[in-house]
Each structure stands twice: as C-alpha cells, then as structure tokens.
Write a structure and sequence with these properties.
Number of strands of chain A: 27
CATH architecture of chain B: Orthogonal Bundle
Helix content of chain B: 40-55%
Radius of gyration of chain A: 22 Å
Radius of gyration of chain B: 12 Å
CATH architecture of the largest domain in chain A: 3-Layer(aba) Sandwich
Distance between the termini of chain A: 66 Å
Helix content of chain A: 25-40%
Strand content of chain B: under 5%
Order of helices and strands of chain B: HHH
Oligomer: heterodimer
Number of helices of chain A: 11
CATH class of the largest domain in chain A: Alpha Beta
CATH class of chain B: Mainly Alpha
Largest interface: A-B, 27 and 24 residues
CATH topology of the largest domain in chain A: Rossmann fold
Number of domains of chain A: 2
CATH superfamily of the largest domain in chain A: ANL, N-terminal domain
CATH superfamily of chain B: ACP-like
Number of helices of chain B: 3
Chain lengths: 445, 94
C-alpha cells in the first residue's frame, strides 16, 4: 500500500502559513493538528467551514489523522446542509465564525497556539486509498452530488499543479481570494501549498485594498490565486499593487484582453487552470499565448462523438466533462463552450435544469423557468432572469423561497411573474420567447 | 471616525448612496425603495459578494477612498444602507 506525506518539499521548521499574528511553522501546524484531532467528536464526517485558510488546513489535517472525511459542499444554503445532515449522519461542523449550522452540532475552532511541538519529529503519511474529502456539486435533480477524493489523488493533483507552475523548483507564497473549501481554492491554495512546498496567507482578502495588504504581508516571490471577477475588480480599483510574480485564474473564462491587462499591470505571467470538481485539475494555459490548453502531467482525454472524458493519474476514475472539447496533438486541446444547459456565474456552476426544478418546487408555483441572457461582461457575472406562474404570490415571496435553496449568485434578477409561460406545442420553452419577454420588461422599465 | 459626523450628515447622504447602489447594480427599483435600516443581504435587498465588490468599486471612485475589511466580516460595512452611508461619510476624501 502506498503512503503519501501530508506535506512535500517542506522541512519541519519551514514556514507553512503567514497569519496576522505572524508565521506558523510546519512543526507548529502538525502539533496543532494533533491537539485538534484529540478534540474532534467521534463522528466520521466533518463539515469544515473555517473561513481562515490556515484553520481549515489544521481541521483537514486533524481529519486525516483520525480517519475522518472532510465534507465540502458547493453552497451553504440551508437546504443543502439539511440534505448533508440526512445523508451523512453524525456530521459535525468545525467553524471559526458565527456560522449558522442549521442544527448541525458544531465545534468552535479552539485556541491551539500553545500546542506543544517539541516532540514533533516527522511529517505524517496516509494511505493513498484513504478517503480524505467529499466535494459536492449541485446535481440536476436538486440533490447534492458527492465526489469522493482519496488522499493519493489529492496529493497527485497538488504535485501536478506545482510542477506545471514551476513551484516545485521555485516555491512562491500563495495569496488566495477564493474560498479554500471549493475545488479551485482547495486545489490551488491548500493542496498546492502542502504538496508544492509553498507557504500561504491565512486570510481570504476581499476588497482590492485587502488583496494589496495580504500580498505585502508575505515574502516574495508571490503567487496570487484569483478569478476573472476579482482580477478585474482589482485592476479597476487602480490601487498601487505590491510585486506579484505569478497570477493564477480559474472558475470562469478569462478574456485575453483582461489577461493582457493583468500581465501588464503586474509585470507577471498569468496562467489559467481548467478543471472541475468531479475531475480535479486537468490543464493550464497562459491566456496571452493563445487559446490552446495543455494537459497536466498524467492526465488523458478520451472522446466519443461530442462527449469527452478525463482520466489518468490524479483523476478519480473516468470523468465525463461538461465542455465541448477539440483535441489537438501533443496533449493540447481547445474549449468550445459548455454542453447544453450548464451555466457558470462568477465561478459557481449549476444547470438550468437544476434551477428550473428549484423554482417549480416552490409552494404555489405552477410553472417556472430560468434564463441566462446573452450579455456577458469580462468578469463573467451575467445575472439570471426567471419567469414564474404563481397566482397570489409576489416576486419577493418567491425570492425568499429560492434563497433557501440556491446560492445567492443564482437568484434571478429580475424575477418576472406571468399568467402563463410561452410554452410551445411540445411543452418546450423557446429561448427566443423568453428573451423577448425579458426585453419587453426592460423596455417597460 | 470623524468626530463631526452627525446623524443628520448621514441622513442627508442616504439618497445619493441609494442611487449609487441602484445604478451600479442595475436594480429594478427606485433608490427611495431601499429601506435605510433593512439588511442589504439575504432577506433584505438580497445582494451578494459580487454586488459588494461592484458597489465598493463605484464608492472608491466617487468618494476617493478604498474599502478595507481589516479582518472584520467583509460585509459588515454593507449591513444596511445606513451603515454603508455612515462609513462613506466618515471615510470620504472627496
């Protein structure tokens, strides 16, 4: 049985994390994870909602040490948490903010700064087959879809990305604007730090000025892990940026114009990562160098008709991809958009089928449908519209219901109430009809 | 915080900030419809973190200062229209 270390390319006295209180060494991290492991309740499943990247890391390591599994849902909407509680009995929550756990038992992140580290002499290893995490996507039926991640696959993903970015030879300090629980942040801040020998900033800077402060708080060279939306906002703010040596973007398509602007502002290369929660990370490209993606080491693609599957080393099985892909020679490929009704807003994925299911399931709704309008800005933040037939209800009541079920970025703006939806003779809703209804509404305003 | 910041100063600035929010986010409502003390997130106006960054950008251009979390809750400044307006009144440089 293969065993793989919790951290690679880190010595015990290297800095693993930079926090507002100063650096934390690998040795202190291991000591704190050991103490936390002793305080975790007996259940098998841990919902680690720590906002702080370092505290999340301690919680994750404590999970591995005790054989527990880290649950990482796509959203923290009440309905999702209730579903997880039903599917994973005994789940408890580790939190470092007054997070509403919707009835889940929770452990508040304790003060571990005094954890004794004198007898920490080795980096622990775990079996490659050990189930380490379950990441969730929102399935088209409304139930969260679970994607199991073994420790070995996570390690190999982190190492493949570190190798592609050159961090294995030249570690950078990581500053991430993305949450550590979701797949991109999980892979590109947490796994990349652990397996790429990189220290990371513990916070998740939000406003442009926060991003500057976080960058200043870590030593160079620096890698900023972000999204098209955050990068555009950062550049638009026109604040003086500290030196950044590498930029990473994922979650939504990045325009070559924005990529060029970011590279010019930072005098640093910008790489995009392509992957999915199901498959892990698959490929990268330097956006300004052309549209082709280059597969990460060990990843392969197979095709039949319009469907493409990813497989190989760190990919869990043979994963169907939601994108239309044109395979090129030498491990390269082009992306030609999403299949059918999959949508992505500011990096959060869902499908129109899922959203339509949610609105139609609201009490009092007789019919309903979502629409993703054409207009898209370079930040990838197009807003959805929705149409509903719900006699006696108003838009605010429907929005209150949707808020219980959906991530806020998917809430429709506007939500238009109608006496009937323009379904054709086969019951389908022509997109052109919905676009016309939306245009009529805008003219009316 | 400026010592001279009075409730009247904030009150007088409310309509301007409300209009800025509605314009920045293309909301389908009149600025006067935003209740000054209702939450801007969740059950109130229903804004999300994308909206917050959009509004923060417009605020920084209009009033000449950058918003910062200082490790506080990112959105505390955005608790309500009145909270945001008070923050702007205290921090503005133009």
């Amino acid at each position: 049985m293969t065993h793989l270390p919790l951290l690679s390319r880190h010595g015990l006295d290297d800095t693993l994390a930079w926090t507002p209180d100063g650096p934390v060494s690998v040795r202190q991290f291991l000591a704190q994870a050991r103490v936390l492991a002793g305080q975790l309740p007996p259940g098998k499943w841990l919902l680690n909602v720590c906002q702080d990247r370092y505290r999340f890391a301690v919680g994750f390591a404590a999970c591995l040490l005790t054989g527990k599994v880290s649950l990482q849902p796509a959203s923290h909407a009440a309905a999702t948490l209730e579903r997880i509680q039903a599917d994973y009995p005994g789940t408890f929550c580790l939190r470092d903010t007054p997070f509403d756990t919707v009835g889940l038992p929770s452990l508040d992140y304790p003060d571990l700064t005094q954890a004794p580290s004198g007898d920490v002499h080795a980096i622990p290893e775990f079996a490659a087959e050990q189930l380490a995490a379950i990441l969730f996507t929102s399935g088209s039926t409304g139930l969260p879809q679970a994607h199991c991640k073994t420790w070995g696959k996570l390690v190999w993903n982190g190492r493949a990305e570190a190798e592609r970015l050159g961090l294995d030879r030249h570690p950078h300090a990581l500053v991430g604007t993305v949450p550590v629980q979701h797949s991109y942040g999980f892979e590109s801040t947490f796994l990349l730090a652990l397996q790429g020998g990189c220290p990371f900033w513990s916070g998740k800077p939000f406003y442009p000025q926060d991003i500057c402060a976080a960058l200043e708080a870590v030593p160079g060279p620096r890698l900023l892990v972000s999204t098209p939306f955050h990068l555009a906002t950062l550049l638009d703010a026109e604040v003086p940026l500290p030196a950044v040596d590498l930029l990473l973007s994922a979650t939504a398509p990045l325009s070559s114009a924005l990529a060029a602007r970011a590279e010019a502002s930072c005098q640093a290369p910008l790489l995009e990562i392509y992957g999915s929660t199901e498959s892990g990370q698959l490929a990268s490209r330097r956006t300004t160098a052309g549209p082709a993606w280059e597969l990460l080491s060990g990843v392969e693609l197979e095709q039949a008709g319009e469907q493409t599957w990813a497989l190989g080393r760190h990919v869990e099985g043979r994963i169907p991809l939601g994108d239309l892909i044109e395979v090129l020679p030498e491990g390269r490929f082009l992306l030609h958009g999403r299949h059918g009704d999959l949508i992505n807003i500011a990096g959060k994925r869902t499908s129109l089928a899922y959203l339509n299911h949610q609105i139609c399931a609201l009490p009092g709704v007789r019919d309903g449908a979502f629409l993703l309008p054409e207009t898209s800005d370079e930040r990838g933040t197009t807003r959805l519209a929705a149409f509903a037939v719900a006699p006696g209800l108003d838009a605010r009541q429907l929005l209150d219901g949707l808020r219980q079920r959906l991530d806020p970025v998917f809430l429709p703006r506007p939500l238009i109430l109608l006496e009937s939806l323009p379904r054709n003779s086969t019951g389908k809703l022509p997109r052109q009809e919905l676009l016309a209804l939306l245009a009529a509404r805008k003219r009316h305003d | 915080m400026s010592a001279s910041l009075s409730p009247e100063t904030v009150e007088a600035l409310l309509p301007e900030v409300a209009e800025l929010i509605v314009n920045a986010l293309n909301l389908e409502m009149a600025p006067a419809e935003i209740e000054p003390d209702a939450p801007l997130f969740g059950e109130g106006l229903g804004l999300d973190s994308i909206d917050v960054l959009e509004v923060a950008l417009v605020v920084s251009k209009r009033y000449g200062f950058q918003l910062r979390s200082d490790n506080e809750d990112n959105v505390r400044i955005f608790a309500s229209l009145r909270a945001l307006t008070a923050h702007i009144a205290a921090q503005r440089s133009k």
